[in-house]
Amino acid sequence: MKVNVNRLIKKLIMLACIIYFVITIYNQQKVLNEYKHSIAVVEKQIEEKTEYKDSLIDLKENSNSLEYIEKIAREKLQMYKPNEKVYKDK
């Protein structure tokens, strides 16, 4: 009788340990998935910022060109060449 009780206690302890390890592994996997998602979000932000930086570099390099100056004068300042006709849609 005592042998059966000791065996039962050992089996219960082993079962409790197995359940504990399974729960721990599950929780760690959940945390790892959250970290992977966070990494993906940050990598996307880095890519967007890099593209924005590249566009600013292009803008800086082209800011002294006559085409860019004319474009800004037309679009932002509403300036036009002499004797040029401007048509506006209503």
The SS-based structural class is mainly alpha
Order of helices and strands: HH
Strand content: under 5%
Give the N-terminus to C-terminus distance in angstroms: 100 Å
Oligomeric description of these chains: single chain
Number of DSSP strand runs: 0
Kindly describe this structure:
With 90 residues, the chain is mainly alpha-helical. Helices cover 79% and strands 0% of the residues. It starts with a helix and ends in a 15-residue tail after the last helix.
Q: In summary, what is this structure?
A:
The chain has about 90 residues and is mainly α.
Describe the protein's topology:
Elements: H1 2-62, H2 66-75
